[in-house]
């Protein structure tokens, strides 16, 4: 089955998905919508330029020839979509997804799914009622390193998990404001929370500390640029995640990355392209070249074609639980209180 795909939001992450989709024969991107004049057309040019750049001399690169819509409602009404990628900023979520679900259109949504837990619950309920395929772009779960980490753990109970999201400030201006981006834990370290919960299960309560230390004079920057959150899991395990947005220009080199898991006589360090397994006096390190995002996109298109929501590793319902945890962490960092994680 050919899957007719639309995209709303024509920024950089949309380009990544579109290049991936052009590599999937079953995917046919037929429509792109963005509220900014010229953004969708520029996105199409970027994608086709990248296709030309990556093409081998003997190949004819597949071109993106999507119709551009200024209004997503017109796109949903006219384009005959089977699937919609939602790549807008997180504060601009909810109405689009509900409109797509009402038309029976499957959803692939960028993380975090929204900044409003009530909106996320409403979308999740609509997806569940329609039994639609849904995926959220927690692509690290698709990494082969993660699969190998699970095999290395071999069912051992995890006592503790440490996570790291250490870097600089993304270019998008909306990322710097709590009202539009939610803060680093909600918008960026959500990947770390998602992967941690995929190994350790549900989180019951959190407490966190955050500070604005370096970017306090940047106009519109009102989120913490440094933070730590502790997570209490229902299993009894403990997790902690450190975040900072004060680094850049290579200054993250040598720092811990990703997720570190500790079990009896075993330490596993895992992220999208790397795995380290330490047990006794033996250390096994591996690097991986595959693209987890390509795997996520291929899996989503396959699930839509088969009309099988169970084929997706990262369904919308899981992302709602992750959002509840990160919002609780942000609340704790602002108030200084232990916060119980709301039921998703």
What's the short version?
By secondary structure, this protein is of the alpha/beta class. Helices cover 35% and strands 24% of the residues. It starts with a strand and ends with a strand.
Q: How many domains comprise the coordinates?
A: 2
Query: Strands of the largest sheet, in order across it?
Result: 14-13-12-11-7-10-9-8-15
Report the portion of residues in β strands. 15-25%
Q: Report the helical percentage.
A: 25-40%
**Mean of the pLDDT scores?**
96
Structure description:
This protein has 344 residues and is of the alpha/beta class. The chain folds into two domains: 3-139 and 292-315, NAD(P)-binding Rossmann-like Domain (Rossmann fold, 3-Layer(aba) Sandwich); 141-288 and 324-340, Dihydrodipicolinate Reductase, domain 2, CATH 3.30.360.10. Helices cover 35% and strands 24% of the residues. It is built from eleven helices and 15 strands. It has helices at residues 12-21, 39-54, 72-78, 95-102, 117-130, 144-153, 178-181, 184-187, 190-200, 292-306, 316-335, and strands at residues 3-8, 27-33, 67-69, 83-86, 106-109, 134-136, 160-166, 203-211, 226-233, 238-244, 258-263, 266-270, 274-279, 282-287, 339-340. The strands form two sheets. A nine-stranded mixed beta sheet has the order 14-13-12-11-7-10-9-8-15. The protein is globular, with a radius of gyration of 20 Å. The mean pLDDT is 96.
């Amino acid at each position: 089955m050919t899957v007719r795909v639309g995209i709303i939001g024509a920024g950089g992450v949309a380009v990544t998905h579109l290049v991936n989709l052009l590599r999937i024969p079953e995917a046919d991107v037929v429509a792109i919508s963005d509220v900014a004049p010229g953004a969708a057309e520029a996105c199409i040019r970027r994608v086709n330029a990248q296709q030309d750049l990556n093409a081998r001399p003997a190949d004819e690169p597949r071109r993106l020839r999507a119709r551009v819509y200024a209004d997503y409602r017109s796109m949903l009404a006219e384009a005959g979509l089977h699937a919609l990628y939602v790549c807008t900023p997180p504060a601009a979520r909810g109405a689009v997804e509900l409109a797509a679900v009402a038309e029976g259109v499957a959803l692939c949504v960028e993380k975090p799914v929204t900044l409003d837990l009530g909106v996320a619950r409403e979308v999740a309920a609509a997806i569940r009622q329609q039994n639609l395929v849904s995926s959220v772009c927690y692509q690290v779960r698709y990494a082969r390193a993660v699969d190998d980490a699970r095999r290395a753990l071999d069912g051992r109970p995890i006592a503790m998990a440490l996570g790291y999201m250490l870097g600089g400030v993304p270019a998008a201006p909306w990322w710097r404001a709590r009202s539009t981006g939610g803060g680093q834990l909600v918008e960026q370290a959500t990947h770390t929370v998602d992967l941690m919960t995929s190994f350790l299960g549900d989180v019951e309560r959190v407490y966190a500390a955050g500070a604005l230390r370096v970017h306090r004079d940047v106009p519109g920057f009102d989120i913490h640029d440094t933070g730590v959150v502790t997570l209490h899991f229902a299993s009894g395990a403990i997790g902690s995640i450190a975040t900072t947005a004060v680094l850049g220009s290579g200054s993250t080199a040598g720092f811990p990355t990703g997720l570190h898991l500790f079990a009896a006589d075993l330490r596993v360090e895992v992220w999208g392209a790397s795995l380290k397994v330490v047990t006794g006096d033996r250390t096994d390190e591996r690097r991986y070249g595959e693209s987890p995002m390509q795997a996520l996109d291929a899996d989503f298109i396959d699930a839509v074609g088969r009309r099988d929501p169970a084929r997706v590793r990262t369904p919308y319902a899981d992302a709602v639980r992750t959002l509840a945890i990160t919002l609780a962490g942000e609340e704790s960092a602002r108030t200084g209180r232990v916060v119980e994680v709301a039921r998703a």
